[in-house]
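Raw record, unedited: Esterase YbfF
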Amino acid sequence: MSTQLHYKIEGDGSPIILLHGLFGSLDNLGLLARDLKNDYQVIRPDLRNHGLSFQATAHDYELMAEDVASLIRSLDLPPVILIGHSMGGKVAMKLAALNPQLVSRLVIIDMAPLKYHQRHHDDVFAGLFAVLEKQPPDRETAMQVLAQHIETESVRQFLGKSLYKDGDKMTWRFQVEALYNNYQHILDWQPVEPVEIPTLFLKGGDSDYINSDAQGPILEQFPHAKAHIIANAGHWLHAEKPQDVLRVIRKFLTQ
């Protein structure tokens, strides 16, 4: 089994790696890639157990960080700019802590270097497993199954991007069982030694993923951190306010 991450590469210039969040794929950060590829070489991998990348029973931040480090080495890249959303943000932070020589700058979108205790995704997992169990024949039926478990339309639409036809049934690109079994690892975080790399934390003004409790742990682990709040945006700020997010990222990268 290949353990090389599946990825897409576009543009020329200093390399940027975009890391998606839980239940996502390399397409999730497409709005950012479309703009940044005009000035940078943009690499978007599918993280393990997601998209077209390999599936594995183990799923934690050290392993995911090493997956991305292996990709950087295999492409023979100079130090990269890492931009990660949510789970991808934790992968970026872990990679910078373990292999600082591979990273020039960090942008973390709506995630803190903290252990999270709240299970945000129980209804999501219920819907994902229901689709696997019922083996719907088409996309419309699969979305109806999801709707029995997940109230929020935008969440259903996001998950629906990872549906595909396998034989005569619809199923998921991501490995539901591995993600469910490792969910505590995904919520978890082991504090890292101070990372001296310039870091930008972007928070959605309406999101609770970075709250006032996060300020101390952020500065302890990322002493060169800057923070910016994108007003009237939730956890998916890069999808809700892409121009605002891009403006702040581009300013940070040219400072």
